[in-house]
DUF4249 domain-containing protein
Amino acid sequence: MKNIKFLLLLFTASLAFTGCEDVIEVDLDTAEPRLVIDASIEWIKGTDGSNQTIRLTTTTGYYEPEIPVVSGATVFVTNNTSGAVFTFNEVPNTGNYVCTDFIPVINDEYSLTVINDGETYTATEKLFAVPEISNVIQDDEGGVLGDEIEVRFFWQDNGAEVNYYMARFDIDVLPYPDYDALDDEFFQGNEMFAFISHEDLKAGDIVHFKLGGTSERFFNYLMQLTNVAEPGGGPFQTPPTSVRGNLVNETNIDNYAYGYFRVTEVDIMEYTVQ
């Protein structure tokens, strides 16, 4: 009986090692393409905020090497407070729609309109202010185990109102930006910070940090996105669902678009790791 168990173990192990040598492509169902609207209007402190870009693409198959762009759409943003209309014109065949005369006004309400394939998509947001980034600190004993370089960026929260923030970090050791959603529930009127740490961060690396004010709805949207994107949970976890933003298809509500329309003031800072 022991010999049989041993042979079964060897057979199972050989299957495991053989399986590691093969590249397995899983057949995945591809849904009908949906419009994706990347409409983040960001007014960087110290600029006039006149140059803005909205990008239109569609969803595609998991193994497709390129993301299809959407050309020929009509895109404009309306300041609902003043009535001003800002037209976004496409750079030919790129899916990038550009406006060079946008006028950002803190606390004004803006509406996005996208007309594509005979259907109209809309969304509305208020332009939120953001505090200045006041300080940056490096900790060489950061991370969970105290063996990573950690960089913290600080700002002063406005205690007269409830605030929500989006923090974005760009570092060379990560292939994509790292996002964080924060609120001032436990820091009302106090100094707040966002941080990033990584085992591969080293002296000379540059950390790009961006801080933006957001609505509560976008805060919740970003929280959902980050939760879906985080790995883990095991084989019995609930499958991630599609996260929908504030975009509404006024023509056909079932043919919704992905993405989010937001307008915000942002502050940026670069820090060179010491």
Observations:
- The helical segments are 2-21, 216-229.
